[in-house]
Protein 1
Amino acid sequence: MNKSIMTLEKVIFNATNQGLMIVDKNFTVIDINQWLIDAIDNNKAHLVGRSIFDLFSFERPQFLRSTIKQAFECGLSSFLSSALHPRLFPLLSRYQSGDRYMEQSCYIKRIFFNDETYCLIQILDVTSNVMRERLLNKTSNDLSLFKIAIEHSASSIVIADNDGQIQYVNPRFVEIAGFTSEDAIGHSYFSLSSQAHEQQFEATVKSALHFHDSWKGERSFVTKSGDKYWVNEHIYQARNANNEPTHLVAIQDDLTQIRDIARKASYQASHDSLTGLVNRDEFDKILIQEITRCDGNANHVLCFLDIDQFKVVNDTSGHGAGDELLRQIANLFDEYYPNDKVLARLGGDEFAVILHDSTFEQAQKISEALIQQVQAFRFRWDDSVFTVGMSVGLTLITAQTVSSVEAIKQAENACDVAKDMGRNRVYIYQDDDDTITQRQGDTYWANKINDALENDRFLLYAQPIVPLLDDSKSSFEVLVRMDGYDGHIIPPGLFLPAGERYNLSHHIDRWVINNTVAWLVKHRNEVAHIDHISINLSGLTLSNDSFLAHIVKVIKDNDIEASKISFEITETAAIANITQAKHFISVLRKLGCLFALDDFGSGLSSFAYLKNLKVDRLKIDGMFVKDITVDAIDEAMVKSINDIGHVMGMKTIAEFVEDDAIKMRLIELGIDYGQGYGLGKPVPIDRILSHSTEIV
Amino acid sequence: MNDQILSDENCDTLNELFNIGMGRAAKSLSEMVNEEVLLSVPSLQALSYQGALKLFDGIADEPINAVEQYFDGQFNGNAMLFYTQRSSQELVRRIIGDLAPNENFGEMEQEALKEVSNIILNACFGCLAEVLNCELQSGVPSIANGDVSSIFRKQRDNLGEAPLVLSLSMTFSLPNKSIEGQVSLIMTSESIKKLVRELERFSSLYAM
């Protein structure tokens, strides 16, 4: 080679941007270029002529030694990567500040020069590549993690450019909105909303983003198939390194479910779970609003409804039956009242309804008609059929109504009066109503009863029970009245319910028995024309053992013909206390007394019970009798009760025989006895004595 | 082609030589990665250039990473070791010890692949030269990415008429994992004839 080329090669050797080193078979450095000298930070004189294994402390010198040997001996070129030989030559990187070691890639190959064999070691600084690579790896690892997080996020995530053109939607968005990525990408994010004023909203959001970099709110969207859904939405402004806005990131959390739950919760909080009607709390709130809204003109009527006989159903057939009864009754109410009513179940068997823009007259008519429907209603449970009744109290809601609590109380009190007056009726609350004023003490009637017991102010009345099919003797049912001091006679409907409530009915029963027996003793010779006297017993009396003993004692002590006395117990009372009732009946029947089952068919016509109750007479509930001439079902009921009674060896008595037409029908049906205004009204008991002229 | 150029006996001999080379490469790789690496060459085929193209298309219908290294001496040609991208990622990840599910096949990974392939090819060349007692040198390795036929076609131009291909399937066995690679030596027909001469000379030495 000539000198000038030598020089040029030498210049290139030293000018190149990589380390070059030539070693001989003994690993002695023959030449080294300026780049590598600089990297070693030494001068050439110190490096040339020394073994590379003296100059550098390699981590695995043996590997390098064999690689160089392989080049010398076999001519095989090798490549040593930075990945597998990190920092092969312990050099500092010139591209990095500080003491950062150089990452290198090395090539080792055999070269020939002047008939000699050498090895060329080429060192490339790849520190920045390695660092960039690591950074890239880290970033890409981070990104894959973020991607996983976004793709599995329970929130919908949408990325749009600064104009709102969608660039990315995550799978959750696809799932909820029904739009695929392809559907969504390229479309305006703001066009997805179901809101009417889309452009206005877009402006609002953009202004919020401009000033605060984020916008938050609740919005509704529409799915691809057109369904509406609600989200809690958070839109962020994404900015680049120069703080210039580049993207919008929207995160949506589906509220549909939460809204549903909230709706359900608020429904549950405001509704009765059994009937689905408004509950007491909610009714109270509504009532408050109604009162506030009342002006001088519009009045509403608040009706308080109480179901009679509910307890019987509950006690005899269980709560399942009671619940079902309430459901059916609630349904009946719901269908009966006009659409704009507010109907609530206040608890137990109590309901309330607000009739808008109504007068007392209208409300009373509506309520009475409803009572008739309730009475006509038959509740079937297993083999039993129950009838129920209802009492209604009314009060007016006006601008003057003091409070919702007060209004409900007024209606409830009126309802109690309706109950006391014998149920199945409507009572209207009046501000100056004595009955209610007195009733409000609630213990009013209890006091009255106690007073009457102490001062002997009960009166005995009697109503004839007339044989329909032959000329045999009539019997009489003894009825109790209260002497009202001021000369008027208080009907039992007013005080007997209170007596039951305050556990006083057996005292009344005792009074009736004692006085009836005394009356029989006193008029021993004037009652030959009377078949027997019938006395009512309450349910409480039935379950009272000492009472039974008392009756037996009174009859025996007075030497009364036991067959002159009959006892009437209601079907419901008998069934509610079936064991005691059976005992009671068997003891007194053995003695010679008669028994009648009262109001048969009213509570529950469970014929099965009849087999267990050995009674002499069945009194068919007047409800079936009074319409017998016009109602085929009633007639069929009466007929079947009569048939069953006769099969079981009982005589039948029809109540509520109000006129001749009914009487004739009953005779045709073969009913044994009749009782009612058409056959004889209740009269003071003395008037039925044989010398009295007032016998019907 | 197989029958004309390489006898079964020659094929067996070559296969055996490559297996020895692979054994050496496996040894150095195991030392490098501190993990047992086994390399084996289950089969060797001598093919026409077209036949090889057809074969490779069948092996890899996805992009590949190929490491090329020329060799020169008593016979010459281009050696190529290629892997499907998935295999090369798997291999490099195991060797570097990076288990992160990274879809990037970056510069560092490519360099590692280049070095591993360089070790394997050099071991094969070294073994051929040593056993056949002939002169054989190799150039530095380089890497190419893309589909197998386009990478392979680039080689075609320098190889005169009717070049031949020695193709070896290779299996890396790492603990719990096998990775397939494909070694091919592309030579002019003239070079193959020289190789055959060397093989026959070698066989005659031991046939006696």
Protein 2
Amino acid sequence: MSEILRRVTAAASVTTFFLASVTTFLVASCGSKSSQPTYDAAIQEGQTAVQELINQGASAVAIALVDDKRIIWSQGFGLADRVTGQMPTDSTMFGIGSVSKMFATIAVMKLVDRGVVELDTPLVTYLPAFRMAAAGYEKITVRMLLNHSSGFPGTDFRNMIVRSPCRDIWIRSSRRSPCRGSRPRRAT
Amino acid sequence: MSVYCNDGFTITAALVEAISGKSYVQFVQDEILTPLGMANTRYRSAHSRPDHTPGLM
């Protein structure tokens, strides 16, 4: 449990660097129903971790301790709205940043389960319009997109936070038409 | 070799749209969020309830 909390805390700390707000989900792997799980220590550790985040400048933190499908503990800290002084609640929405990669992956895997997408099939099979200047792009498979091995340049924080998903982003880029809501390019 | 890259996931949105025929947001809503009862999760571009601070996914 302590290890889980430490990992989550580390992840959340990194997230605070980029986002004004942070949401954290803790998963307790106290699966056995025969042994009575004790949550007090985990909650105490969670509260300490949150306080650390707030001290580091996080605006708002919502935290939940989940055991299987049951929410054991949830609490909001800091301010969800500095103007009104509103605190975050268990239903306050946060920008979840790269956690959205899990949703993208699940969406693709739904299609894989249905047999309409194969992970090791090249992307151009499904998206004939996909083109890159560099040779070899036609060998990029769906799996490579999901496990960061496509050979695309690493993320440099350009377009890191967008307000809506970008459709046909590579086509828009080639037409020099910026995706709405994307952040301007920054020198690195 | 792996290099942390957001673009791969951005492109999966286009893949999902091309195969499913739905917008990516609609697909995630219909196939993941609604079945799981995740009523407090949505894309910022989607309709948001007035009692919620708009979020970003």
Protein 3
Amino acid sequence: MQNPNDLLTIAGKQYQSRLLVGSGKYRDLAQTREATDAAEAEIITVAIRRVNIGQDPSAPSLLDVLPPDRYTILPNTAGCYTAKDAIYTLQLARELLGGHKLVKLEVLGDEKTLFPHMPETLVAAEALVKDGFDVMVYCSDDPIQAKILEDIGCVAVMPLASLIGSGMGILNPWNLSLIIEQARVPVLVDAGVGTASDAAIAMELGCDGVLMNTAIAGARDPVRMAHAMKLAVRAGREAYLAGRMPRKFAASPSSPMAGRLA
Amino acid sequence: MIDITLNGAPHAVPAGQTLAQLIETLQLQHQSLALAVNRSVVPRQLWPARVLVPQDQVDIVRAIGGG
């Protein structure tokens, strides 16, 4: 049972789910929908791409299986390496989604690492915020960059935990903690989660949410992994709110010493 | 006919064709799409009024799966 009062607020809108999912790399649209529902995700990222001219115009489209009146569609700028291309992509996305303002900005540095290109990201974030977008931004796990993005007016900062699609998990929890401690907007781990424990660790650190795609779509059974991720994000969140016991170097018996037979 | 660029590739359309007619010719009128000419977004309600001219660069996009 989810705590109904523990909501995630992004750009003034409240969400029950702290698990955001991508819609890429699935076998087909039916599996995309099934995994999205198993994750109980409310915010779903999509990519914006040129239509293949000449393709079957009656083929079902992504927005038919993930209707924007039911899910919050989060268009991304995946594949953009310049601020200019990212801004253009999101202007088209806004038109496509009928004036929708919430977007995921990612400006990449190179194809090998897909690491964020921070100078271009800052330029794009500034222009998009000025243009009225609510910008959730993929960024390096650098507390100074995160602060600058927050000051620009981004509605959420989303540092990578490890490389996009790598499944390497939470490689620098200390940097994430520094970002979380200072942030006044939601902090979401975006990229790097590989399995349920990674998602739980991110949430235990105090992240407000986790965004993932490959960890679910790349699992042997994506729908089952989507369910696992839902539980992990909830468990990690509850553990964070409960407050973990302090780590100790000495043992401490759980059973009372008094009355023992030894 | 006039030559334009459609989604990055050369494309010929009849002189005087509008964006709305182009979308209909491509049988895309029932799809969720956005359209830009020369990297400037053209809102759907303006598609019938915008006439294509030679060298126009048209981008037609949609949402697909992505992370």
Protein 4
Amino acid sequence: MSETHTLTRADLSDVVHREIGLSRADSAATVEQVLTMMCDAMSGGQNVKISGFGTFVLRDKGERVGRNPKTGIEVPIAPRRVLTFRASNMLRDRIAEAD
Amino acid sequence: MIRSELVQRVADANPDLPAKDVERLVATIFEAISAQLAAGGRVELRGFGAFSTRARDARTGRNPRTGEPVDVSAKRVPYFKPGKEMRERLNV
């Protein structure tokens, strides 16, 4: 895990393969399940709270007037739901103290 | 949904896997992401989102109770950007 390499699904399933001892196929499948189940919960309107890691919080934004930056024409921006991640204090401290 | 419910759902989907392994599997995934961020790296999960860190300059904060100035040193903070597919699924 060097600083330049970006961690992806493949790396996560590799860690699961090594640490848990599942086959590569099962490791990839279960990593995908974890992500899918989190995604399903959030698209169903649920916040996802992972102790020691952080909370994925859904926020509803009201309708507002925006502007096309290119043309300057005002356009309404529809109400929508956005997702923010609030890292746990444990993760924040770990990252802040890493330097 | 909390961590234990996530573990339960993954366990339900994999009746052949011991519950202990599912618990460890979920812990392993979040530990790997945390370690990568602590090392200054990035985690990109297409469709889900990307985890990275952002630099914060040193600043002089204040103790909200006493109003006393305190030096806050420069640090990195975790950041998550939801993926395109995730953003779309939240708004259907």
